[in-house]
Design a protein that fits this description.
146 residues; mainly beta; elongated
Length: 146
């Protein structure tokens, strides 16, 4: 009987330790919606007033000055937003340095142009209500800037 109590105690201690020192939490980034670029670093192809839109179905779009119109797909891996304009290659890797409710700072690496820049964005909407509809429109995603 003593052996069974000791084994039960050890099993209970092991299970408690396992649950105490492990975490089931994952990073959860709520970035869906429409974000306005309010500050950029020098080498950024984006300008103040441009918009980045993250659809909850994984579609991504930018629009703004003068004829900025990019469409693609986004996903989050760890702390990094991966954006693809052709669905296969990661064109932009945006490390989320700060995300606080309606404010986000991204350190971006552009794999196509081999440049790095920082963007500061402010959430303008949790949903995309603009007249522009964020869809793939039966075409491959496109990238038009610079």
């Amino acid at each position: 009987m003593k052996t069974i109590k000791q084994m039960s105690f050890m099993l209970l201690l092991t299970l408690c330790s396992a649950f105490l020192f492990t975490s089931c939490e994952e990073d959860w980034w709520d970035i869906e919606g429409e974000w306005e670029v309010v500050e950029t670093s020098y080498s950024s192809p984006y300008r103040n007033g441009d918009y980045w839109v993250f659809d909850d179905h994984g579609y991504f779009q930018t629009y703004g000055y003068p004829d900025l119109n990019e469409r693609g797909y986004w996903d989050i891996v760890g702390h990094t937003i991966q954006i693809s304009f052709n669905r296969y290659d990661t064109d932009l890797e945006a490390y989320i340095r700060i995300l606080d409710d309606g404010y986000m700072v991204l350190d971006v690496y552009d794999n196509v142009y081999r440049t790095r820049y920082t963007l500061r964005l402010v959430r303008r909407s949790y949903h995309y209500y603009s007249q522009r509809k964020l869809t793939n429109e039966n075409t491959d995603a496109t990238r038009h800037h610079q």
